[in-house]
Amino acid sequence: MGRIRSGKTTLMQALQKKELVYAKTQQVTYSDNFIDTPGEFIEMSIFAHQAVSVSLDASLIIMVSSCIDTQNSIRPNFITMFNLPAIGVVTKIDREDGNRSRSRHYLQYAGIPDNKIFEVSSYSGQGLETLSQEIHKYVNRDGQAFS
User: Fold this and answer.
1) Residue 54: partners with Cβ closer than 8 Å, 6 or more residues away
2) What is the pTM (predicted TM-score) of this model?
3) Which of 35, 75, 111, 147 could form a disulfide with 62 if both were Cys (CB 3.0 to 4.6 A apart)?
């Protein structure tokens, strides 16, 4: 989950070693081991209950914040709405105009502990292996990892 244009879909594609193709997520999309959600789930509080409903199919919440995003739309302690473990991901770290510490702060504000925040670039691959290893700690009995 994350704001519009935070890099959720691109991150999902990179983790699955698929071609990176930008596409605005218009609806909840189930793909292999991931659930991709529209950014409106974060940006519009009216959709918060939808986010909780979708999380019933997940075993891990991945909260995404782009380091080039200067506005925070994630509500305080947002992650506590879910009865699931959660990690945070700062995306677009390859961008020179990014501010990683600001994005880390946004994720901490949402309730993610600092030691559960990972920094990645979906394009260069930096940080993806470490993030992938963390995600696999939450694999369910069927061998499926969800996000």
Assistant:
1) 28, 35, 37, 41
2) 0.86
3) 147
